Amino acid sequence: MNMKQFLSILRARWMLIAAIFVGVVAVVMIGTSSMAKRYKATTAVLVDVRASDVTTGQAANPGFVQGYIATQVDIVTSQRVAVRVVEMLKLVPEGKDAAAVEAAKLKAAEGIQKGLSVKPARDSSVIDVVYTDTDPDRAAKVVNAVAQAYIETSIRVKTDPAAKSREFFESQSRELRTELEEAQRKLGAFQRTKGITSADERLDVETARLNELSSQVTTLQAQSIDSRRRGESARQGTSSGGSVAEVMQSPLIQTLKTDQARLDARLRERSAVLGSQHPEIVRLQQELESVRARIESEAASVTDSLSRTAQVNAGRLGELEGSLAAQRAKVLALRQTRSELALYERDVENAQKAYDAVQARLSQTTLESRVGNSNVSVISPAEVPVRPSGPAPELWLAVSLVLGALLGTATAMALEAMNRKVRGTQDLVAVDVPMLGAVRRVPKRNIKDRRPGWRKGGPRRNASDVSSYGAAG
Question: Disulfide-capable partner of 43 in 61, 80, 382, 428 (CB 3.0 to 4.6 Å)?
Fold first, then answer.
């Protein structure tokens, strides 16, 4: 089908198309006029995403702005906010049946949600809250109540989890405080039992005393060994007629040795002149023997002194070794006590750390649960709309015009498809039917202005000026 055939169909059925067109326009306009007018009230709400947290002081991460705004849109349109609006405006009266009242609130909240729409601004933290209603006053009141309920809900969203956390930390704080007091009680009882005032100082003193005794024992052991050797050497030297350093170092023995040498030299000198029986020789021999006896006596005394010194050193060494063993046992006991004390102190320290950590979290959650500020604020509250937002007569008129034209044209084409008629030579060509001739259509005005003699012969017209109908043979 070409455009000429299409236009011929429309021309043939123009009355039907016009009737459908007028009917559609009339129905749409009558329906539009019967529709109730609707009013839109809008309030702008600012969501300050980049504001620092009141309790922690930390700034928000800019990467979560879009997701945060989407979350706030969901909160605004949530059932919780709608129910709060119903409560604020008292749209449902209170009654004795709590279940019925709650069901009525939910139903009213659903109605508010249907008329509510939220439009976040692009590249901005401003949210436009729009509510549509047939009553302009009610539309303004509801949208302002939605904004206020949203602010309250945004605060409750933060404070409710914090309040639950605060209850948990309060119970934990009481338990940890009891554990801390029990650990401190055990530590005090242990200190009283062991008589500990300052374990570190006492252990340091006893350790120093142990080191001092250990040093004394080491020194005395060396002295005892040395004195024992000297005593044995002195006894061996005395018994063999020799001499030892201790004996030779004695001043008296040195003096006696000197006298002995002098008398011995005098005796040899006088023996060369005098006889052995000479009184002087006898006197010198007696003096020499006396000196020798004194030397031996003094050597025996020195030897006895060395032996007694060795015995004394051995006795002192035994006493010091006993004291050292007792001191060592005492230090070991103090170290054991200190280890046990460290366990009790560690228990107290761990309990204190746990209690302090819970107290810090309790303080933080308490502050978070009491925060009354929000990062949401109303920029411009809604005013009562003056002009209705719908229905728009101009828009519905345009829609009815287009719809009427389309519906009329579609109806004409459908009827033509069901009962196809020949409206021109092109229709015959399309169905492959031979055409015998074409009858020219003459306009009425040409018939009135026709000259005499036109039937016998007149000017021929071009084929393009003839609108013909074909006949099939």
Answer: 382
- Cα–Cα distance list, 78 to 18, 117, 151, 269 (Å): 50, 11, 13, 143
CA 88, 103, 75: angle at the middle one, nearest 5?
A: 55
- Cα–Cα distances in Å, from 331 out to 187, 194, 207, 348? 21, 14, 6, 25
Residue 422 banded pLDDT, cuts 50, 70, 90: low
- Res. 266 pLDDT band, cuts 50 70 90: confident
- CATH 1.10.287 assigned to 199-369: yes
pTM for the full predicted model: 0.51
In the three-class reduction of DSSP (H, G, I as helix; E, B as strand; rest coil), residue 380 is classed as strand
Question: Distance between alpha carbon 88 and the CA centroid of its chain, in Å?
Answer: 36
Strand pairing category for 116-120 and 376-380: unpaired
What is the arithmetic mean of pLDDT over 186-201?
Answer: 73
Q: Which residues pair with 127 in a beta bridge?
A: 45, 120
Alpha-carbon distance 208 to 214, whole Å? Answer: 10
Q: Is 381 helix (H, G, I), strand (E, B) or coil?
A: coil
The answer to whether residues 291 and 211 touch, using CB atoms and an 8 Å cutoff, is no
What one-letter code names the amino acid at 171? S
Report residue 203 as tokens: 């252990």
What would the 3-class secondary structure string for 65-129 be?
HHHHHHHHHHHHCCHHHHHHHHHHHCCCCCCCCHHHHHHHHHHHHHHHHHHEEEEECCCCCEEEE
Q: Give the integer Cα–Cα distance in Å for 236 and 230.
A: 10
Q: What is the 3-state secondary structure (H, E, C) of 135-153?
A: CHHHHHHHHHHHHHHHHHH
Can you tell me the distance from the alpha carbon of 158 to that of 308, in angstroms, rounded to the nearest whole number? 93
Tell me which H or E stretch contains 13: none
Give the β-pairing of 376-380 and 39-47: antiparallel
Q: When comparing pLDDT for 109 and 206, which is higher? A: 109
Helices (H) and strands (E) in the chain, counts: 13, 4
Q: Given this model, what pLDDT does residue 243 score?
A: 47
The per-residue pLDDT for 230 is: 63
Averaged pLDDT for residues 266-280: 74
Contact 228, 310 (CB under 8 A): yes
pLDDT of residue 350: 93
**Domain ranges in the chain?**
199-369, 434-473
| Overall size of the chain counted in residues | 473
Residue 413 in 3-state DSSP? helix
Q: Give strand pairing partners of 31.
A: none
- Minimum mean pLDDT among 221-230, 344-353, 374-383: which range? 221-230
